[in-house]
Each structure stands twice: as structure tokens, then as C-alpha cells.
Amino acid sequence: MRPGWDYLIVTAANEEQAKAYREQLGIRRNLGLISGVREILVVPDPEGLRIGSGGSTILCLLEVISRELRGRGKKLASPAAWQEALARVRVLIVHAGGDARRLPAYSTCGKIFIPVPGESDSALGLTLLDRQLPRYLSLPA
């Protein structure tokens, strides 16, 4: 059975934050807390320069297009190929590239991994992402 989502992409402010996000997402994936997703990616802003949600969305979609067209012999420069690639996948982008300046203790792990109250069925404490992600992943096609 095909998973509900082809890509879950979490954006990050910089490579350091992206590394922390990859680790946290990997732990959750290995524990079976993230399912129904073919690939989980973390896409940082380039060179740590803030590009905003719009720029980050474009960067994420370019990454998906590149992955979908890799090895298929199609030219990446063709807008028709881009449209075809994006039409056959389901992509969920979670914009989480904030600096957490008002919460410096969470600047590296980002606000998306801030602990929140509630019970957790795993060894991990519950985070903001853990609360939100099941709702996002359950969205209908």
C-alpha cells in the first residue's frame, strides 16, 4: 500500500539546526512514531541566510523535483517535467526554521521540538511537532 505522503519536509534556519532536526526526526522514525511517509527531509536555508517561508517553500519543492527526476533521464530545466514530477507526489512542508531568539535554550533544536505538556507513549517527551504531526499526516488527499 502506498503511504499517505511521499515527502515530509521540515525546514531549518541553518545547517546546525537541520542536523538537530534530522537527529530528532530519525529517532521518531526509528521508534515508529512517524509512519505513512516515504521520505523525511530537512531543508535548511542556504548558507544560514534567512529566505523566509516563500523562499523556503521553493527550495523544498526544488529538492523534491530534483529527487523525482533523478535517474529518469528528464531535463531538470523543463517546466513540464517539474509539473509532472510534482503532480505525482504528495508533499507536506512544516516550516520550522525559526531562530527561537526568545527561547535561547531551544535555538539549536528549534521551537518545533519544544517540550509540551501531555502524555507520551514513547520514551521521548512530547514536543510541539509530536502534537501537530499526526493531524497534518491525517489530512485527506
Quick take:
This protein is 38% helix and 14% strand. The chain has four helices and three strands.
User: How many strand segments?
Assistant: 3
What series of H and E elements makes up the topology?
Answer: EHEHHEH
Mean pLDDT: 85
Proportion of residues in β-strands: 5-15%
Q: Which range best describes the helical content: under 10%, 10-25%, 25-40%, 40-55%, 55-70% or over 70%?
A: 25-40%
Number of helices: 4
State the oligomer.
single chain
Radius of gyration: 16 Å
Apparent shape: globular
| Alpha-carbon distance between the two ends | 15 Å
The largest sheet is: 3 strands, parallel
Which consecutive residue ranges, at least 5 long each, have pLDDT under 50?
none
Q: What's the arrangement of strands in the largest beta sheet?
A: 2-1-3
Task: Tell me about this structure.
- With 141 residues, the protein is an alpha/beta fold.
- The chain is built from 4 helices and 3 strands.
- The chain has helices at residues 15-30, 52-69, 79-87, 128-137; strands at residues 5-12, 37-44, 91-94.
- The protein has a 3-stranded parallel sheet, with helices on both faces.
- Strand 1 (5-12), helix 1 and strand 2 (37-44) form a beta-alpha-beta unit.
- Helix 2 (52-69) crosses helix 3 (79-87).
- The chain is globular.
- The model has no long low-confidence stretch (mean pLDDT 85).
